[in-house]
Amino acid sequence: MRKPELVNAIADQADLTKEQANQALNALIETITSALKEEDTVSLVGFGTFLQRSRAARTGKNPQTGEPIQIAASNTVAFKPGKALKDAVNG
User: Fold this and answer.
1) Residue 52 and residue 73: Cα distance in Å, rounded?
2) Coiled coil where (predicted)?
């Protein structure tokens, strides 16, 4: 499912116009992004938790030459699904 399809589904289920559903989805995405930038977690009970994880600097290998290279430390986003979501997917 892509964003336009998700907007249509939200509009149908919440009895909103497509524009209102698009604004709501954009607001949700911006809010989650802002929270993760501030190293906060976003927990949606029954759905899951978005959190920021740090990756330490490490030595990797150039796949073409086999030479070792330094990979800089970075942050990434992780999602930990909640029990209800896991049960829905597996049941």
Assistant:
1) 13
2) 11-38
Domain spans in the chain, listed from the N-terminal domain onward = 3-90
At 29, list the tokens: 């995405």
pTM of the model: 0.80
Q: Where are the alpha helices (DSSP H) in 1-91?
A: 3-14, 18-37, 83-90
3-state secondary structure of 77: strand
Q: What is the pLDDT of residues 61-80, one digit of tens each?
A: 999 999 999 999 999 999 99
CATH of 3-90 given 1.10.10.60, 4.10.520.10, 3.10.20.30, 3.40.640.10: 4.10.520.10
- Classify 20 as helix, strand or coil: helix
Give pairs for 37-44: CB < 8 Å, separation 24+. 44/82
Residues 6+ apart with CB under 8 A from 54: 73, 74, 75, 76
